[in-house]
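hi!! sorry for the late reply, been swamped w classes. u asked for the two structures so here they r. pasted raw, havent cleaned anything up. first the sequence of the first protein and right below it the tokens
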Amino acid sequence: MENKTLKAIMSKDLLCVEPETSLEEAYFLLRSHWIRHLPVVDKDQKIVGVISDRDFASVKITGVGPTVASRAQVRFPFSSRVKNHMSDQIFSVSINDDLKMAIDLMLMNKISSCLITDNEHLMGIITTDDLLRLLKTYIDSPKDSLRTRLEVMLKTSPLGTMGDILANAGI
């Protein structure tokens, strides 16, 4: 399978919010679009942060549950704004960087998304979901797949040998 680029796997059609966006609006954008991260941009479209589903953990929201069907059921603190709950630490890589750089940045900082920029303009986002989809394509690939390589590695490693011995012993 060929090497994938950031451009190939990043999400491009982004929903963004501004710092003054209400938490309620941000929450329902995340929820209604089944996403976990919203880039926060100012009036000039400059990236100023990210708000994620995790940021809502610190907000006193009532009426939230798996069956919440409408905004009428959920109550947010009066005048809560994205700017008060977003992360203003921006993790990004250039669209020209390789995928490994984005993965390393995410792992090093224990984050689940990375913004993709081109000369400081927001071009996309890569998330753990995108990376899991990519991993799945490698595992599902019929020829020279990651699955095949993993099976060979396990069978030829001491761990694989030990597994064979235990299996043959009926353990």
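now the second protein. again sequence first, tokens right under
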Amino acid sequence: MKKIIFYLSDHGFGHAARNLLIIEELLLLGHQVIVKTGEAQGAFIKDSLKKYQALEVISQSLDIGLILKQGSFEIDPQQLEIRVQNYIESWHSRIKKEVTYLKKGNPDLIVCDIVPWIFHATKEVGIKSCLISNFTWIEIYQEYLSKEIISAYKSCYQQVDEVIRYDLATSFMRQYFKQVNEVSVCARTFHEEEVKKIKNRFEKPIVFVSVGRSVDLEEVIYVDHFNYQFIVTEGIKLIGDNVLYLPKEIENTQDYIKAADLVITKAGFGTIAEAMLAKKKCGVIARDTVAEDRETIRQLVERGLALQVEYEDGLDMKQNLSHLENFEPSYDTYSFTNDAKKIANLLIKMCSPHYLMTLSSYGKEQTGYLVPLESDQIPFEIKRIFYLVDVPNQMTRGKHAYYKTKQVLICLHGTVKVKCSFDEQETIYELNNAKQGLYLEPMVWREAYDFSEGAVLLAISSELFDEADYRRLE
């Protein structure tokens, strides 16, 4: 079992929401997860994952984010400069405190989205770190703040050990980090029964409208004359008998997105990812003054996946609804996948030469599942496949390591125990789920034993058989 600590920005809820499923995948694999984030964001994560005992959530203000002009989408440069400068001056004490915490807790990996200063602490303690994001604060702040501030932020992100970069990443992030793990998106899963219930509540077509929790727009927009049901999150003022505001504490806004016919949203990554995965007709509110939003919209529009919506003293709802109704997004050409399982597997790989990985499967309990063994599932090129069958219970197989070969072991039927030894540490895995694999790096000693009757152990290898590749006992 690995101990992984997440440091999540408490600017809005997007960072918490997009890491939620990754955290759950790690918990399902039996690992301990600690999450540090703001109080409201921590409560959201804790409520969403309350059934997991191996989860600990610690409330801690970690980030500044953006400071907006009152009642506007626009950044307030003067207030932002003051707040960020004060924030940087707090880094020394924050880092000192966190170094003490990390030395005592001794985690295997630090995952960060996108709190800057924590990387100085991880480097001082010698704990591996991973940045996971589609942007950094550098490309947003450099259009408003001093070179000294940008230099301070760069000094943080330069300490990163590993990077997982989402699709729709900014051009700055694509250029700044040279060695990255590329993934599609990550978002909360849809609950089809809830989606069905939401649709059945309303006779009119549904329009989901969201501007994010960090915004509070002043303009009032009357929509009661439109033949739509509007479902709205806080931050924008829509008035009419056909408007339903979702409460702050609601945990499944993704299901309302899936139930909607049309989506109008700020370019926040979480809502965009959920709208894209649900393959909705989506209008994205322009915000040229924020680099992340600007580049997200540009990429979506260029791919034919969304329309840009202008916000000038409110939304021209009539025009926007008409354009969206006639819009046909290019999901057949460009599509996204929910890569939470892939990301969880990447994180475990970063802190261990052997780990359990969840294999993607397709189907349902009533009809059974298909588990493809393809390049996006297996983290190497497959060159050899074999399986062990009819192994007596008292027999131990393996008793070797490889110099070059990587492997994934899958128990297709029954149960098998595998003892892995590496760097004088031993771990025993019980394999009993055909939708899980045990990944083994080269030089990991492995012994498979305690085969149940009828057990079948499949081995997928990165190399062809070569006796010279085996490391055996003398």
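hope this helps!! also noticed smth abt the second:
The chain has 14 helices and 27 strands.
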